[in-house]
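Predicting holo structure, iron/sulfur cluster bound.
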Amino acid sequence: MYIMIQSETVIGSQSDLKPNTKNGVIILMSQVYKVFLHTYGCQMNLYDGELVGSLLQSGGFQLISQPEEADVILINTCAVRDHAEQRVLGRLRTLGALKSRHPQLVIGVLGCMAQRLGEDLKKQVPTVDLVLGPDSYRSLSGLLKDQLSGHHGYLIGCSGNPQETYGDVLPTRREGISAFVAIMRGCDNFCSYCVVPYARGRERSRPPDEVLAEIQSAVEDGFTEVVLLGQNVNSYHWESTDFATLLIAIAAGVKDLRRLRFMTSHPRDLSDKLIEVMAEGGIVCPSLHLPAQSGSDRILELMNRGYTVSQYLTKVEKLRARVESLALSTDLMCGFPTESETEFEQTLNLMRTARFDDAFTFKYSPRPGTKAARLKDDVPEEVKIERLERMIAVTRALADESRSRMIGQKVEALLENVSPREASEWTGRTRCGRVILVPGAFRRGDIVNLQVEAVRGFSLWGQVNESQIQVE
Ligand code: SAH
Ligand code: SF4
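Done. Tokens:
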């Protein structure tokens, strides 16, 4: 067991301080150590970064924004594609050079890549001192204190608690109006290409009362919008509460929350009940991220996605029919092993048929340990690149059309900041999640009713049609 005493609360002279005693360790920090934390990857990783920030602060560390001044540099990593890992390895090597000038500097790697590579990471980058996976963050402060007091060599902690949800840890959120709240962790889907179930472990949900309490606390801290996070929110369950019921409970039970979004939805598990909750509207926003991955049934089967193209499109039709002004986005992949040109064109067809408002497009990247990694990665790199470019072109065209369809519509915008390009304008988001520019002087968090009058680049542009600002 660790007993940690922060420097501010230490009683007695500095010479009384014993940095560490084994078993029943007492760690007394004679100075506040500074930690620089950088997060790569998805929203869940950003949220985990906020949890880590909170755990470090209660462990007596100070979070700073300049790596040069840090005693500890932590890199919170993503392992979904090889490219993401290569970026992290490059960053770690650069940090190694910093360490040669400051030998006391502790460098730690957190997140999915830490979990996936474990000890191998140390072999690849010898200057790394600590490797900790997503279920092990409770031990981070103690391990860092051990490191900083020079009592340990290289540390690795990737076994973690497979049931960990950090339910009692309130994340240190960055400033803003939109807060992330994880409702579950891990994933049980084992899509054949995906490393997430290996890096983040088995799926586990948080109890609804805990989720509601965290959202209420975020609202009390000034956040107007909450984005619920999970690898597959549609499989959320706690006793008799499923995901649709959780949304109803949040809408009824949290005071003063204005907007509720969620991601990611797995098409197989998206229920009619959820579509009806979205159709009801209220604080549940009409934006949905529904990764399709491919427009070919054969490839979907190889991906172990659990739906066909026609089942996917049936859900899209229901959603479009029931949820007014829905903005639908997706993830798509090209170059999965054995994907033919015709099968790839089926993906382009799916994009047009589903009329995606936005899409995140990726080249398949084999991930060691996954089922697909056993298949020959036989689509040549230049073909993957060419297919990716075609997907991006279709995405752009669909997104342009989607924005143009908004012209003339009345929308509600939640304002976030003065526009970085034009100081006389504010930028905000519509309920369906589109960025909108609004001329005028406002305050962060204002909600205004607008008429969309034009498209400016990737944003809408609108003017206040009734001068009613609904909240401060
Ligand atoms: N849980 C979410 C997010 C998973 S990762 C979901 O199920 O949608 C985000 C996206 O990265 C995936 O939707 C997929 O399109 C892409 N992706 C995952 N593994 C990949 C791989 N090995 N190669 C390329 N893209 C991948
Ligand atoms: Fe990966 Fe599939 Fe789980 Fe998403 S649902 S995290 S793609 S295994």
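The chain has four domains: 9-157, 176-285, 294-303+323-405, 410-468.
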